[in-house]
UniProtKB/TrEMBL annotation:
Locations listed in the record: Cell inner membrane; Cell membrane
Annotated stretches, region: Disordered: 33-65
Subunit: Interacts with the Sec translocase complex via SecD. Specifically interacts with transmembrane segments of nascent integral membrane proteins during membrane integration.
Biased composition (Polar residues): 41-60
Organism: Pseudosulfitobacter koreensis
Membrane topology (UniProt): Multi-pass membrane protein
The organism's taxonomic lineage, starting at the top: Bacteria, Pseudomonadati, Pseudomonadota, Alphaproteobacteria, Rhodobacterales
UniProt-listed PANTHER family: CYTOCHROME C OXIDASE ASSEMBLY PROTEIN COX18, MITOCHONDRIAL, OXA1
Membrane insertase YidC/Oxa/ALB C-terminal domain residues: 377-580
NCBIfam families: PRK01318.1-4 (NF002353), yidC_nterm (TIGR03593), yidC_oxa1_cterm (TIGR03592)
GN (gene name): yidC
Protein transport in keyword set: yes
UniProt family annotation: Belongs to the OXA1/ALB3/YidC family. Type 1 subfamily.
Pfam families: 60KD_IMP, YidC_periplas
Function comment: Required for the insertion and/or proper folding and/or complex formation of integral membrane proteins into the membrane. Involved in integration of membrane proteins that insert both dependently and independently of the Sec translocase complex, as well as at least some lipoproteins. Aids folding of multispanning membrane proteins.
Protein's recorded name: Membrane protein insertase YidC
């Protein structure tokens, strides 16, 4: 490979790294507030739940007859939720599930840290909750159905557990009795069964709906290009990921009266909002066609993910029932797989696998299985690296053999350059003839590097996105492989009596930890398998590259740095042994000083 091609590949690789680091240190700015362009007035409750159209064949009517204050939402009577996985409560104001925490997850790795909150009521920071109801249609008045502020009555006593569902009831005083049964399984799935009994003299029409409501964007929004946060939905096998800023920018839908992204006539699917590790998803009953909608209310700064089933006619003496499931919890691989196997199509794809899903999915599956077998995520990453290097070994072998043969041709190549002078065409032709005569492929050394880039990116995606890496310990101070190295030169890796610089600060980037140092050293030693390039510019770039990477990757997830160290170590071992087998003994100490020693072929053993 000539110097021009080397420079091109080097520039491409460095550009990729620079762009990646730029987005890490300088994420895209927050979107500007969307200018209010009200095309029509829409009734909105104080909690922002607003209007749900009853159906495309009916005039939209308000789903809520009144308003509520934040204090009323928090202080309304409540029913406790308590299982092995979750705790919280259901508000009788609207019968909403608006208070949910995860018992098995904490905010930080400290043993006494608060457990993670998923849902919160109106008036609390980051209000986020789920509602179900009936949108009136035809001649049915808005106040004839329960709204977001309607106070329900519990039938019976006791809280919601895995073994004991709760039943809520509300009578409108005009012959309609609304009933809601809420059950929860031993994981994170709620089953909500709504029914309407018509004891009146005339038929009425209403459409069942479900709604996940979020007040503003989450305060802990990562806003990182590698991670999707916002809305996620599946409609008849087609996955859609919608960023927060895309919903307000949508066109105003006449049926919804506000910016909305609508998918009508979905036969099978789900919709909701997703964070880094948690999500809340609505799954309408199987076998029912429904509409999906993502809407935004600018006046209240409220996002909604809505499922609306077709309008139903409830004849006198008839009871109509509708079922919805709601998932609220962590995006655990095995849990989502179980729900997918039970009939929720594509549920595992609510995890953001990215463009390289054909790599990220198998890489994570293998890493997950290795961790189940080994019981340590750091050792599992090292084992995964060994497996990846073993799979790529045939290509690596050809690459290193080609590199060794090219080194054998180095004196002839230098003679060609001297003879050709400034005639680059003559030099290129001479080199091609030399490669052909000696059966050397100059591009063979680049292929493993090109294959390594998507694998590296996919593994980074897996480590950053999946919850199984969150707070996963390795050993000693490395108790969270999804976080940067917690050690620092600043306090000599914990031996000096003061703390480390704050994570993400300039000081933390300068005073790196143990893992980035090992990364730089391993990259430096691997580089010294070969002598320094003769070109002064390339020599300078190669000399600085290990230390530049050391500082750039110092703020990355520890698990990724562990992978890179393991990869460098294995690559060094492979290359050293293959070069020895081809008649060369790399003189590492000599190369540090600028020398290189060749082993005669007759002495090779």
């Amino acid at each position: 490979m000539d110097d021009q091609n080397k420079n091109l590949i080097l520039a491409t690789a460095l550009s990729f790294v620079v762009i990646l680091v730029w987005f890490v240190l300088f994420p895209p700015p927050e979107p500007d507030p969307v200018a209010e362009t009200p095309t029509e007035q829409v009734q909105t409750t104080a909690d922002g739940t607003g209007t749900v159209p009853a159906g495309t064949s009916d005039q939209p009517t308000a789903a809520a007859p009144g308003v509520e204050t934040p204090v009323a939402a928090i202080e309304a009577p409540r029913i406790d939720i308590d299982t092995d996985r979750v705790e919280g409560s259901i508000s009788l104001a609207g019968g909403r599930i608006d208070d949910l925490r995860l018992k098995n997850y904490r905010v930080t790795i400290e043993p006494d840290a608060d457990i993670v909150t998923v849902l919160a009521p109106v008036g609390a920071p980051d209000a986020y909750y789920a509602l179900q109801g009936w949108a009136p249609a035809g001649d049915l008045a808005a106040d004839a159905v329960p709204g977001p502020s309607t106070e329900w009555t519990q039938v019976g006593t006791g809280g919601l557990t895995v073994d004991t569902p709760v039943i809520l009831e509300w009578n409108n005083g005009n012959g309609l009795t609304f009933r809601r049964e809420i059950a929860v399984d031993d994981q994170y799935m709620f089953d909500i069964t709504q029914s309407v009994r018509n004891d009146g003299d005339t038929a009425v029409r209403a459409a069942p709906y479900g709604m996940v409501v979020r007040h503003g964007e989450p305060s802990d929004l990562k806003n990182f290009f590698i991670l999707h946060e916002g809305a996620v939905s599946m409609a008849d096998g087609e996955l859609s990921e919608t960023n927060w800023d895309e919903i307000p920018d949508a066109d105003v839908d006449p049926a919804w009266g506000r910016p909305a992204i609508v998918t009508n006539g979905v036969a099978e699917g789900w919709i909701g909002f997703t964070d880094h590790y948690w999500q809340t998803i609505l799954v309408p009953e199987v076998g029912s066609t429904f509409d999906q909608a993502l809407t935004y209310d600018q006046a209240a700064n409220v996002y909604r993910a809505v499922t609306r089933l077709p309008t139903r006619t409830i004849a006198p003496g008839e009871t109509v029932t509708s079922e919805t499931q709601m998932f609220a919890g962590p995006k655990e691989w095995e849990t989502l797989q179980d729900y997918q196997a039970s009939g929720i199509g594509g549920f595992i794809d609510s995890i953001d696998w990215g463009w390289f899903f054909f790599l990220t999915k198998p890489i994570f599956w293998l890493l997950h299985e290795l961790n189940k077998l080994i019981g340590n995520m750091g050792l599992s990453i090292i084992t995964l690296t060994l497996i990846i290097k073993a799979v790529l070994f045939p290509l690596a072998y050809k690459s290193y053999v080609s590199m060794a043969r090219m080194k054998e041709l180095q004196p002839q190549m230098e003679k060609l350059k001297a003879d050709a002078g400034d005639d680059r065409q003559k030099m290129q032709q001479g080199m091609m003839e030399l490669y052909k005569k000696n059966k050397v492929n100059p591009a063979a050394g680049c292929l493993p590097i090109l294959l390594q880039i998507p694998i590296f990116f996919s593994l980074y995606k897996v480590i950053f996105v999946t919850i199984e890496l969150r707070h996963a310990p390795f050993f000693g101070p490395f108790q969270d492989l999804s976080a940067p190295d917690p050690t620092s030169i600043f306090n000599f890796f914990g031996l000096l009596p003061w703390g480390t610089p704050e994570a993400g600060s300039i000081m933390a980037l300068i005073f790196i930890g143990i893992l980035p140092l090992l990364l730089g050293i391993s990259m430096f030693i691997q580089q010294k398998l070969n002598p320094a390039p003769t070109d002064p510019t390339q020599q300078m770039i190669f000399a600085w590259m290990p230390w530049v990477f050391m500082f750039m990757l110092g703020g990355f997830a520890s698990g990724l740095v562990v992978y890179w160290i393991a990869n460098n170590t294995i690559t060094f071992t492979q290359q050293y042994l293959i070069m020895r087998s081809q008649g060369y003994t790399p003189d590492i100490l000599g190369n540090i000083k600028g020398g290189f020693k060749r082993t005669p072929k007759d002495a090779k053993k």
